[in-house]
Task: inverse folding
């Protein structure tokens, strides 16, 4: 066999292997895309069995305290506190608050302190917590494209009421404590349905970093933060869209 024939044979084999690898990658991506999209739609009716963040905490030794509850078993005070603290435009936007993102980017350019909660909507936080992962650095930038995708998927298929319901059930509210029911039982020994305005604001105040900011014993940050949340609750409660979402049937 000549060198030329041998070389052509090796080139053909390399192309064959490369094309096969490419087909496998494309099929894998398509499978993940379709299956994750179907899962996202299914979560319109069922709560996620477990999230990546919950699994990481469980494996890290924090445990997993969680008890999913329905919309009607969550106090209106909690729903109002979540929007007052995390996303006051939640009832109006389509999933992503682009103006807030622009302001956040502008703050970073001018070396001001960016407020993450203002740029990341409740819908985005729900998408990240249910379907993706936490963390900063490069992982945060890699996460952004699927985060935007899942954000729009759940906005289109779930609706505001379901998004807020899932958010309040899956968000971390203490080391190994997930969801408002588990947090309410742990901190105030009562059901989430019976939380007062102050109690709801205290729990929601830990959301920037629930492993660092303790509800009980109350950290200094929460003692300063929760009265401000209560003030915002009073300010937004009368808005028709928010009132309808919190108190409407």
Result:
């Amino acid at each position: 066999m000549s060198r030329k024939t041998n070389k052509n044979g090796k080139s053909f084999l390399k192309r064959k292997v490369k094309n096969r690898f490419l087909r496998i990658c494309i099929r894998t991506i398509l499978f993940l895309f379709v299956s994750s999209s179907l899962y996202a739609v299914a979560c319109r009716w069922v709560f996620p069995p477990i999230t990546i963040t919950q699994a990481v905490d469980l494996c890290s030794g924090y445990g997993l305290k969680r008890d999913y509850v329905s919309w009607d078993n969550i106090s209106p005070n909690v729903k109002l506190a979540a929007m007052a603290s995390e996303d006051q435009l939640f009832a109006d936007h389509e999933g992503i608050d682009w103006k807030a993102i622009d302001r956040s980017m502008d703050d970073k350019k001018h070396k001001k302190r960016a407020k993450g909660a203002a740029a990341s909507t409740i819908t985005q936080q729900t998408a990240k917590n249910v379907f993706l992962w936490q963390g900063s650095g490069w992982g945060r930038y890699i996460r952004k494209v699927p985060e935007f995708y899942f954000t729009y998927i759940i906005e289109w298929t779930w609706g505001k009421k379901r998004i807020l319901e899932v958010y309040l059930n899956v968000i971390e509210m203490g080391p190994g404590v997930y969801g408002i029911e588990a947090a309410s039982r742990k901190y105030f020994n009562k059901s989430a349905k019976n939380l007062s305005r102050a109690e709801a604001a205290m729990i929601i105040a830990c959301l920037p970093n629930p492993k660092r900011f303790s509800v009980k014993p109350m950290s200094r940050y929460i003692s300063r933060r929760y009265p401000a949340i209560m003030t915002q609750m009073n300010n937004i409660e009368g808005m028709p869209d928010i009132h309808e979402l919190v108190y409407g049937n």
Q: What stands out?
A: The chain has a mean pLDDT of 86. The chain has twelve helices and two strands.
